[in-house]
C-alpha cells in the first residue's frame, strides 16, 4: 500500500504498468493505454506498478465509455494512495496542457528528457509544475477544555450548508504564518496569534497544496467579508454544525480539536 512519486521510470522496473487516463479532469485507470500516440507522463510507483498519466485529447472518443470519475468521486472508490497518484497524474497532465507555448517567446514547447520540465527550444525557458500553497486554519477561543470554541465559516459559493476552517492562498513574499494571520483578518475581521503547523495535504483542485494550521483568538468581533464568507460563528465541540467530509484536511483539523477536548 505505497505510492512513491517519481518523475522518471526506474531503469530496473520489472513490474506491471497502469495507465491513468485523464479525460478533462476525470480519471480512468486501465492496464493499457487506449492510444499509444497520446502523451503519457510518468507518475510514480504504486504498489510495485509503474503508473502513467495519459493525456486524452479533447474530442477523442471516451476510452472509459463513461466510467471515468472526477477526483472527488474517485476518492470514495479507491484506496487513498491511488487517489494521491491519480491526483498527481491530473495535475501533471493539466500542467502540460497549459504550457504548450513558451510564456516568454511564444514558441511551441517540448517535454524535457529525464526531468519533469517543459522546455522552449528557441529561448531555453524551463517550466516546472506549479503548486499553489494555501493555508487552512482552525481558530480556537478560550482555555482548552469543554468550553473552548472553534471558529467555523461557510463560504458564499458552497452549495451545502457546511461550516469549515478558514482558508486562502499564500501571497508572493509572504510566510505561511503571515498568511494565516492575514486571511483570518480579511475573511472574518478578527486577530489571531500563535499560528502552528499541523500537517499538509495535496489538493488537486486544480493544483493546491493545503497547509493546515491552528491559531489562537486574540481580539475582535466576527465581521464576515461578504464576497467570501456567508456566515461564521464560534462553536463548541458538543454543538457543531455540518462539517466537511473526510477527504479534506479541514476535517482532520476539526476532528483533532474535537478529540483533544475529550
Ligand atoms: Zn521561449
What are the salient characteristics of this protein?
binds zinc ion; 6-stranded mixed beta sheet; 262 residues; 3 domains; alpha+beta; Nucleoside Triphosphate Pyrophosphohydrolase
Strand order of the largest sheet: 1-4-5-2-3-6
Strands, count = 15
N-to-C series of helices and strands: EEEEEEHHEEEEEEHEEEH
Q: Rg to the nearest angstrom? A: 21 Å
Shape: elongated
Extract low-pLDDT stretches: none
Largest sheet: 6 strands, mixed
Annotation field: number of helices: 4
Bound chemical compounds: zinc ion
Which percent range fits the helix content?
Answer: 10-25%
Distance between the termini: 32 Å
Per CATH, the architecture of the largest domain is Alpha-Beta Complex
| CATH third-level topology of the largest domain | Nucleoside Triphosphate Pyrophosphohydrolase
What share of the residues does DSSP label as strand, in percent?
25-35%
CATH classification, class level of the largest domain? Alpha Beta
Pairing-aware structural class of the strands and helices?
Answer: alpha+beta
Total number of domains: 3
Q: What would you give as the CATH superfamily of the largest domain? A: Nucleoside Triphosphate Pyrophosphohydrolase
Mean pLDDT: 95
Amino acid at each position: 500500500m505505497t505510492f512513491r512519486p517519481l518523475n522518471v521510470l526506474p531503469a530496473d522496473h520489472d513490474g506491471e504498468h497502469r495507465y491513468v487516463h485523464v479525460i478533462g479532469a476525470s480519471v480512468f485507470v486501465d492496464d493499457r493505454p487506449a492510444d499509444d500516440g497520446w502523451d503519457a507522463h510518468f507518475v510514480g510507483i504504486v504498489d510495485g506498478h509503474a503508473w502513467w498519466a495519459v493525456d486524452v485529447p479533447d474530442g477523442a472518443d471516451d476510452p472509459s465509455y463513461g466510467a471515468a470519475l472526477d477526483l472527488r468521486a474517485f476518492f470514495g472508490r479507491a484506496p487513498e494512495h491511488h487517489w494521491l497518484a491519480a491526483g498527481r497524474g491530473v495535475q501533471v497532465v493539466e500542467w502540460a496542457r497549459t504550457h504548450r507555448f513558451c510564456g516568454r517567446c511564444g514558441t511551441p514547447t517540448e517535454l524535457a528528457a529525464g526531468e519533469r520540465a517543459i522546455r522552449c527550444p528557441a529561448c531555453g525557458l524551463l517550466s516546472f509544475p506549479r503548486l499553489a500553497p494555501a493555508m487552512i486554519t482552525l481558530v480556537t477561543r478560550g482555555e482548552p477544555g469543554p468550553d473552548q470554541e472553534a471558529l467555523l465559516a461557510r463560504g458564499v459559493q458552497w452549495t451545502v450548508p457546511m461550516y469549515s476552517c478558514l482558508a486562502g492562498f499564500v501571497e508572493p513574499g509572504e510566510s505561511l504564518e503571515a498568511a494565516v494571520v492575514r486571511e483570518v483578518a480579511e475573511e472574518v475581521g478578527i486577530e489571531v496569534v500563535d499560528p502552528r503547523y499541523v500537517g499538509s495535504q495535496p489538493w488537486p483542485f486544480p493544483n493546491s497544496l493545503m497547509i493546515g494550521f491552528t491559531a489562537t483568538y486574540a481580539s475582535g468581533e466576527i465581521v464576515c467579508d461578504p464576497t467570501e464568507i456567508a456566515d461564521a460563528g464560534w462553536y463548541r465541540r458538543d454543538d457543531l454544525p455540518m462539517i466537511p467530509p473526510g477527504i479534506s484536511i479541514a476535517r482532520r483539523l476539526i476532528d483533532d480539536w474535537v478529540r483533544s477536548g475529550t
